[in-house]
Design a protein that fits this description.
Layout: H1 6-37, H2 41-51, H3 63-70, H4 74-86, E1 90-94, E2 102-106, H5 108-133, H6 139-147
Antiparallel strand pairs: 1-2
Amino acid sequence: MTAKDPALTALAQGWCALSLLHGRIESHIERALQARHDLSVREYSLLDVLSRQHDDEGGHLQMKQVADAVVLSQSATTRLVTRLEDRGLLERYLCPTDRRGIYTNVTEAGLELLEKARPTNDTALREALDQAAANPELAPLVRAVETLKIPVPA
């Protein structure tokens, strides 16, 4: 296949449109979260992911799982955890059954901030999708996002 292959061209255009949609949504949410709650999209995502942990079997996430969930490298995730810990929004402690393991939990202050920020995140997401739906190149992707049925972890 060559660069002039119509299938590859369409694929590249689709990828560019998806990347554009993602960037617009993330930027819109970032501005709203920063302005109202002094949180970045990544910080919000981390608080959200960690708030869903539980003390039952398999309920705590390892740092690699957290990094995958917030789409960051493990080292960037560790730096992000440290920043939120310094703000009193997260706390780390040793695993009671494996002293090598470290758990990270959201503090009460972190849960309060997350609950205050959740409506801002949801509203900004809706606004960004509505704006993108007005663009004929992005409208099909917006419809696809709106019809996705992905189970949310409990």
